[in-house]
Amino acid sequence: MSASKPILRTKILDQPVRIYRRYTREVRRRGATLGHVKIWGRDRSGERKWIVDLSPDLQDGSLEELITVIHELMHVADWGRDEIHIDRSSEDIARTLWRLGYRKSSQDATDGGH
Fold first, then answer.
1. How far apart, in whole angstroms, are the C-alpha atoms of residue 69 and residue 57?
2. Which of 72, 68, 66 is nearest to 101 (CA)?
3. Do residues 73 and 113 lie in contact, with contact meaning Cβ atoms separated by under 8 Å?
4. pLDDT (tens digit, 9 = 90+) per residue, 45-57?
């Protein structure tokens, strides 16, 4: 794993999350796996701390990127949920947001996650 800086630090249900765009053992070049989430520790209160790795192969601002981000963050929000539920829900949510016109803007990457 590289010592790269996260593209975003945020919280999901008060759990810290760091999001990276990089290849890892789980996220391979031009592979089927476009994202991966894992627990990387716990904070002082015992809450899980998470890392989400996104494939650099994902087109920045694409629908596929939106689906992948929602998919991985849903794992953070509900770790015990089965993969079929996560897959279907993340695709439905992303496609609904896409149809409503939600798109990534240049400001999104620079607002510090606020």
1. 13
2. 66
3. no
4. 777 889 999 999 9
**Among positive and negative, which fits the CA dihedral 40, 11, 85, 64?**
negative
Residue with tokens 């999901």: 12
Q: Using CA atoms, how far apart are residues 46 and 97, in angstroms rounded to an integer? A: 33
Which among 2, 7, 69, 4 has a CA at the least distance from the CA of 34?
69
Q: What pLDDT was estimated at residue 114?
A: 44
Which pTM value belongs to this model?
0.84
User: Using the 8-state DSSP alphabet, how is residue 59 labeled?
Assistant: P
Query: Which strands form 8-12's sheet, in the order they lie side by side?
Result: 8-12, 15-21, 48-54, 35-42
The 8-class DSSP code of residue 50 comes to: E
User: 38 with 50: CB under 8 angstroms?
Assistant: yes
